[in-house]
Design brief:
339 residues; alpha+beta
Length: 339
């Protein structure tokens, strides 16, 4: 029973389409637990970042999202944690807080520095031993490994146990993972890190084709959940909260807390382009936004929102295409490249 934080051979690294770490002031660290397909990812802004959040799924698992309301006092946070393990996985944020405090990072409260670390989790407990989930040491280790390098993608970090296409049951689902991308316009960059564990299918918006999702009963072809549901095929009984796409969008543009919240809302358009159905009663879809302000300027909210949605969509596609098939017990989850 060992743990590893090194990238799994079932993951890939890439830089061609950019990464969230292209945003100045952002670092990413990931922990992958080999005892079960699960893990956590942390996005760090050591100098603090203006933050916002938008929760669109009906079954979220989150920590410290209330403080991100535009009317509330705190306007900066120091990290965001994404984790598997459902609500148990929120404990990973405690480890991130401890590590950041040791680095002298946090909000000055007079008697010390208090790191502010909101978090969101996805439900990956159906894949392997459900008693193994990210904890405080996992979050701490992810922080230790954080860097400005492009993060690994696929079956790593918060995407280790992620899967998609569960409309007709887990036995017909497929493997997904975590992905990253960035878009730069006029010297301003917006990047995204997305862990995709949706109940729905993943669609390439460029072609309109399903690239991963629910399979036919034979398991040899994609069924296209949207069309199947509209034909009247009955979905399987899906446990509430057992799906979720979570992520962080970061920009070096100068933004306010209210603008960060609006960008999180606009970024969900990227999920709507690439996941169908999305924002369901069984999903806890949650997107955070961080603004480091390092660019010292902004192209305006219309352009920033367009960039945020684009980076989010690209990251979902990367999470899907970088994932590798797994077999855990009797459960086999093929990946996009298998089709």
């Amino acid at each position: 029973m060992t743990r590893t934080a090194s990238p799994s051979p079932r993951s890939t690294r890439r830089r061609a389409a950019g990464a969230i770490t292209d945003v100045a002031g952002i670092e990413v660290g990931q922990f992958t637990d080999t005892r079960r397909p699960t893990g956590c990812s942390v996005v760090i802004a050591r100098d603090g970042a203006v933050a916002g959040v938008d929760v669109r799924g009906a079954a979220p698992g989150t920590r410290e999202t209330d403080l991100l309301e535009p009317t509330h006092l705190v306007d900066r946070v120091h990290a965001i944690v994404l984790a598997g393990g459902s609500a148990w996985g929120l404990e990973a944020a405690t480890g991130a807080v401890r590590w950041l405090e040791e680095q002298g990072v946090g909000f000055d409260v007079g008697v010390g520095r208090l790191p502010l670390v909101p978090a969101a989790v996805l439900f990956d407990l159906m894949v392997g031993d459900a008693t193994v989930r990210p904890d405080a040491p996992a979050g701490y280790r992810a922080c230790e490994l954080a860097s400005t390098n492009a993060p690994a993608e696929g079956n790593v970090g918060a995407g280790t146990g992620a899967c998609v296409g569960k409309v007709f049951g887990m036995q017909r689902a497929m493997k997904c993972g975590i992905g990253t991308a960035s878009v730069t316009v006029g010297g301003v960059t917006v990047g995204a890190l997305i862990a995709c564990n949706a109940v729905g299918d993943v669609i390439d918006p460029g072609t309109g084709k399903v690239i991963a999702g629910a399979r036919t009963r034979s398991g040899k072809a994609l069924i296209d959940s949207r069309r199947a549901l509209l034909r009247g095929e009955a979905p399987a009984s899906v446990l509430a909260g057992s799906n979720t796409t979570i992520g962080v969008i970061a920009t070096d543009a100068t933004i306010t807390k209210a603008q960060a919240t609006r960008l999180a809302t606009m970024a969900h358009d990227g999920l709507a382009r690439t996941i169908n159905p999305v924002h369901t009663m069984s999903d806890g879809d949650t997107l955070f936004v961080l603004g480091t302000g390092r660019a010292g300027t902004s192209p305006g909210m219309l352009t920033l929102g367009t960039m945020a949605a684009e980076a989010t969509a690209l990251a979902v596609l990367r999470a899907t295409r970088a994932a590798a098939a797994i077999t855990v017990g009797k459960l086999h989850l093929p990946c996009a490249s298998d089709f």
